[in-house]
Amino acid sequence: MNKNGNFLKKVGLALLSILIIVSTIFQTTVVKAATSYGSQFLNTVELLDKDGVPQTDFGYYDNMDVHYTWSIPNSTDVKAGDTMDFTLPSQLALATDLAFDVKDNKGQIVGTATVKAATNQVTLVFSDYVEKHSDIKGELDFWTAFNQKIITGNETINLEFPLENGTTGIEVEVGEKKTVGPTETLFKYGWIDANNPSLIHWVVRVNYAKVNIPSAIFTDIIGAKQTLNFDSIKAFHGTYSADGIFTAGTPISSTNFSATSDGFRVDLGTLTDSVQISYTTTATDGGKSTQYDNTAKLMGIDFATKQTLTWTPASGGGGDADGTTGSVTLTKEDAKTKATLAGAEFKLVDSKGTILQENIATDASGQLSIANLKFDTYQLIETKAPDGYKLDVTPVEFTIDENNNAITVTKENTLNTGSVELTKLDATTKISLAGATFELQDKQGNILQTGLTTDENGILTVTDLVPGTYQFVETKAPIGYEIDTTPVIFEIVAGETDQPVKVTKENTPETPIPPTPVPPVPNEPTVPPAKPEVPVTPNKPEPSKESPKPTEPGTTTIKLPTTGDTPLVNGWGLLLVAISASGLIALRRK
After folding, report:
1. 3-state SS of 335-350?
2. If you placed Cys at 66, which of 142, 329, 425, 475 could pair as Cys (CB 3.0 to 4.6 Å)?
3. How far apart are CA 19 and CA 39, in angstroms?
4. Of all helices (H) and strands (E), which one includes residue 47?
5. Quick check: 165 and 159 in contact, CB under 8 A?
6. Gram-positive cocci surface proteins LPxTG domain spans which residues (predicted)?
7. Which fold has domain 418-507?
8. Where in the chain is CATH 2.60.40.10?
C-alpha cells in the first residue's frame, strides 16, 4: 500500500506540474482588436488622366488614376492600428503590389497604405497621428489600367467604387483594342514586376513586318533612375500572331550582346524575320517613381532608323493627409499681486478622464504650453503648488474646437498664510493680563485691523496673514497698567507658516499718586466768649463739718462738657484748667 500510495503521489505531482506548464505556455493577454472602418471615411472618387484631368473616356491601353478623397469625423474615436479597408473594381488592374506612407505636410506619417495587385484590396493602417489630431482629411491615388482579361475594348463599362454610404458608379468609355500594324518594324513596352516594384520588365518587338535589314543593330538607352541587369538580356528569332503573341524560335547568342556607356546593343546581322528582345532594369529609387522610360533604336544598311521612347504603364500610388490640432497656454499668477509664478505642476486630463500628460511645470515666466491637442474638452489640474503657495486642485477646463484652437487660461494661487499669538504680561510678575487692546499694522504703519483685545488668558490671535512683516501697536492698556505704544514687530515667513509666531508684550503697573493733605479747620464758636472777670480774693475757708471723703489715689474727677458747653480748644484753656485744679488741691491740704 505504501508503495502504491507513493506512486500515486508522484503521478499526481507530475500531472499538476504539466498543467502548470501548459497554462503558462498558453496564457494570453487580452488585447483590444483593431477596428476596421471599411470605406466609411471615403468621401469622393474620380478617374484622372495622366495630366490630372477628370475623365470618363479612356483608350484601351491608357492608365487611369483612381483618385479618392477621405476624412475622419471628429466624433469618431479612431486609434492607432485601426484601419480603412476597401476594394477597387475588378475591371481595373494594378501593375504591382503597393506600399506607401500617407504623410502630412510636415512629413508626419498619418497611416501606411498597402495594395494587393491580385485582389485590388486596399488597406490603410492609421498611426497615432489620428489620436492627436482633429479635422483629418486626405487623398489617395492608385494608378491602374484596364484589366485586359476582362475588358475587350470598344465598350462602355460601369465601375462600382466603394464610398462612405455604400458604392457609387462611374460609366467609362473604353477605346478599341489595337492590332499590330503590318508594317511595324520596332515596338517596345515595359511594366513593373507584380511582386517587386523595383524590378522593371522590358520587351522589344523587332521587325514584325519581316523586311530585309542588312547589318541590323539594335541599341537600348536605359532611362533615369535605373540600372541595367545585363545578364537578364535574352533574344530569340520567332514569329508573331496577328494579335501579337510571340512564338520563340532560335535564340541569339549572348556573344552578340555588348554593353554601352548608357545601355547595351545587340548585333542581329542580316535580319529577315522577327526577333523578340527582353531584359530587366532595377529602379534605383526603390520603385517610388510612377513611371520609368527607356529608348530603343533599330539601325541597318539601307534602312531608315527607327527610334521609340517607351514609358512603363503608370504604377504605384500615393496619398497625403492633414489634420488640425490646438494648443493651450496657462499662466500661473499670484492671486493678489498678479506676479507670475514658476514651479507649479499640472496634469492634463481629457473629457473621458484619461490622464494624457503629467508633471507639466510652469517655467520662469510662470507659463506652460501644450501643443498638438485634438478637438476635445480638457482639464488642467494642479498637482504641486509653487513654493509658499496653497495647492488649488480646482480644474482649469477648456475646450479646443474648430473655432478655438489656441487657448489661453490663467490659474491663480494664494500664499500660504500664517498666524501670530501675542501674550500680554505684567512686566514684573509675568502674570497674564486681559483687556489690553491693539491694532495690527503692516511694516509701513498702515492699519490692517483694530480692536484686537487680549482674552482672559492674556492672549490675542490673528490668523490668515500672508508672509510679510507686521507690528502690533497697543491702543489701550489693561486696567491699572501704563500703556506702551512701542510696536511689537514680527514676521510671517513664507514656507514657515505651520506654527503661529509667538510674541509677548509687557506692561508696568501704574504708580499710585498720594492725595494732597488738607489741614483740619476748627469749628468757630457760635457765641462770643465772655470777658474775663476780675479775680476776687477768696475768704479763708471754713472747715467743713463733714469729714472729707478721700479720693482714690491717682484719680481725678473731671466734669465732661455737656451739649452747649464751649469746648477748650486752645492751650490757654488747658492751662487755666490745670492751674485751677492745682489751687483746689493746695487749699484742701491746708
Report:
1. CCCCCECCCCEEEEEC
2. 142
3. 46
4. strand 42-48
5. no
6. 560-590
7. Immunoglobulin-like (2.60.40)
8. 325-413, 418-507
Instruction: Please tell me the total number of residues recorded for the chain in this structure.
Output: 590
Structure-block grid coordinates of residue 246: 510571340
Look at residue 109 and tell me whether its pLDDT is greater than 70.
yes
Q: How confident is the model at residue 511 (pLDDT cuts 50, 70, 90)?
A: confident
Q: Which of 206, 203, 191 lies closest to 238, judged by CA?
A: 206
| 303-311 β-sheet, strand order | 257-259, 263-271, 213-222, 293-300, 303-311
Asked if residues 16 and 9 have their Cβ atoms less than 8 Å apart, the reply is no
Q: Give pTM, 2 decimals.
A: 0.63
- The answer to whether residues 181 and 164 touch, using CB atoms and an 8 Å cutoff, is no
- DSSP for 208-240 reads TT---EEEEEEEEEE-TTEEEEEEEEEEEEEEE
Q: Let me know: does 198 contact 290? Beta carbons within 8 Å.
A: no
Q: Letter for the amino acid at 28?
A: T
For residue 16, give the C-alpha cell. Answer: 499538476
Q: By mean pLDDT, which of 107-111, 416-420, 523-527 is the weakest?
A: 523-527
Query: From 3.30.450.20, 2.60.40.740, 3.40.50.720, 3.30.470.10, which CATH number describes the 186-318 domain?
Result: 2.60.40.740
| Rounded distance between C-alpha atoms, residue 393 and residue 346, angstroms | 9
C-alpha distance across the termini of the chain, in Å: 161
Q: Does residue 67 sit in helix, strand or coil?
A: strand
User: So what's the pLDDT on residue 554?
Assistant: 43
344-395 pLDDT, tens digit each: 999 999 999 999 999 999 999 999 999 989 999 999 999 999 998 999 999 9
- Dihedral of CA atoms 452, 457, 462, 467 in degrees, nearest 10, equals 130
The per-residue pLDDT for 467 is: 86
CATH of domain 325-413: 2.60.40.10
Mean pLDDT of 9-18: 60
User: How far apart, in whole angstroms, are the C-alpha atoms of residue 202 and residue 220?
Assistant: 11
Cell of 387: 513654493
Backbone angles phi, psi at 256, to 5 degrees: -85, -5
Mean pLDDT on 22-44:
73
pLDDT at 127: 97
Question: Residue 99: is it exposed, middle or buried by C-beta count within 10 angstroms (0-12/13-18/19+)?
Answer: middle
Task: Please state whether 372 falls in left (phi above 0), alpha (psi between -120 and 50) or beta.
Answer: left
Could you tell me how far CA 273 lies from the centroid of its own chain? 77
User: What does the CA dihedral 146, 152, 155, 161 come to, rounded to 10 degrees?
Assistant: -30
Question: Using one digit for the tens of pLDDT, what is the confidence trace for 206-226?
Answer: 999 999 999 999 999 999 999
- C-alpha distances in Å from residue 489, one per residue of 302, 485, 581: 120, 12, 81
